[in-house]
Amino acid sequence: MAKRTQTRFLARTIEGSRPSEMPGFVPPQLATLRSKAPAGDGWLHEIKYDGYRLQIHLNKGTVTVYTRNGLDRTKRFSAIARSFDIPVERAIFDGEVVVVKDGRTNFSELQAALAGGQQGALTFLAFDLLFLEGFDLRGARLIERKRILKGLFDETGLAGPVMYADHLEGDGARLFEHASKLGYEDIISKKRDAPYRSDRSDAWVKIKCVQRAKFPVVGFVKDPTGVAALHLGRKQGKDLVYMGKVGTGWSHTVSSQIRKQLDTVVSPKSKLTKPIRAPKATWTEPKFVAEIEYRDITAEGLLRASSFKGLSKA
Question: Against a cut of 0.90, is the pTM above it?
Fold first, then answer.
């Protein structure tokens, strides 16, 4: 058992908290998409993590893990649940489960880890605290909720696969500029004095560093164990037009998984409205879509600086 902590008693002392029975699943607060990072000192800024939203409930020795839609997935994330062995009877943590690769979160690696049952690769990043020891914290200021959350981590020794998700204060535009240069997907800016609300509002805003969309996979280039590249299309009215290739964003394991799925929909010829010349291509029925991160679309109509993020059925 982790060491005793005094932080768990602070919930009753902060403005906006109130005595309450522990609620069940709390619908999550969501961010509104904006084109510019907010200015001024009233905001906390976080890197947007490329993972799945989870909510962790501690209730008198029982840990329950919920998805963003309120589904109980404790067994699937049992390693994370076991990590919350702390001297706290009742609490609700909000955060994101991720896989970190090459210093940043990677969604395709997360999908592969979950498909293979590789819980050792998972990390839960806790960024908010909604309830603690008989007190509902949703009415308290975000900066106070995070202060108590950080205190729990510091005093209990909570550690991997569970981590505190830190933030920066100050100029949102400057953080956005740095995040873009480092290749991060988005930043999230949150009003430091706002309560927690289970809806989408301007108290949390998301600013995209890059664009992201799903494109039908119309073909692939083989390599010895998987795929070397994917050919992508896009529906424009009744036409299926070519959008270019993507050849990065997957590991050897993910590449092999992609190949197994695409081998089931191989086509004898291209399904593009205007076929292209690609001698090494193996064409497919557009039954799968690839989620792609990209900077922009060129004058020729092709994706620029694209990276693979995931594969799903169309």
Answer: no
The model's pLDDT over 96-149, given as tens digits with 9 standing for 90+, comes to: 999 987 777 878 788 889 988 899 999 999 999 999 999 999 999 999 999 999
Q: 32, 186, 49, 28: which is closest to 107 by C-alpha?
A: 49
How would residue 5 be classed by pLDDT, with cut points 50, 70 and 90?
A: low
Structurally, at CATH architecture level, domain 7-208 sits in 2-Layer Sandwich (3.30)
Instruction: Classify domain 211-313 by CATH number.
Output: 2.40.50.140
Taking the domains of the chain in order of start, what are their residue ranges? 7-208, 211-313
Q: Do domains 7-208 and 211-313 have the same CATH topology?
A: no
Give the whole-angstrom CA distance, residue 180 versus residue 163.
24
Task: List, in sequence order, every residue forming a beta bridge with 213; answer none if it has no partner.
Answer: 292
